[in-house]
Amino acid sequence: MCKYFSIDGYWKDDQTEFSECIVKEYDDSEETEERDNLIFYYGLSENEIKDAIASPDENGLEFVITSYKEINF
User: Fold this and answer.
1) CB of 56 closer than 8 Å to CB of 64
2) Whole-prediction pTM value?
3) Which of 12, 19, 44, 64 is a Cys-bridge partner for 56, taking CB atoms 3.0 to 4.6 Å apart?
């Protein structure tokens, strides 16, 4: 079963903060177009999120994750 997470953080380029953005472990065909539009980012597992928090400059993302929680979506 695929997990969903709510993340808080900011964009690396201009430091603009964001909160409660939905991240999904991977892209699949489960989503409807409406629900797909609510997903901020695909392809981050919980371990990858933890690594991104621990090493924000080494993750290759355009944003920094400052906190997360698993959600039911």
Assistant:
1) yes
2) 0.88
3) 64
Contacts of 21 (CB under 8 A, 6+ apart): 6, 7, 8, 9, 40, 41
Place of tokens 């997903």: 39
Instruction: Tell me how far apart the alpha carbons of residues 67 and 54 are, in angstroms, rounded to a whole number.
Output: 11
Cα separation of 65 and 33, whole Å? Answer: 26
49, 41 Cβ separation under 8 angstroms: no
Q: What is the pLDDT of residue 30?
A: 65
The Cα–Cα gap between 59 and 4 comes to: 19
pLDDT at 31: 66
pLDDT tens per residue across span 25-71: 886 656 677 888 899 999 999 999 999 999 998 989 999 999 999 99
CA angle 48, 42, 35 (to 5 degrees): 140
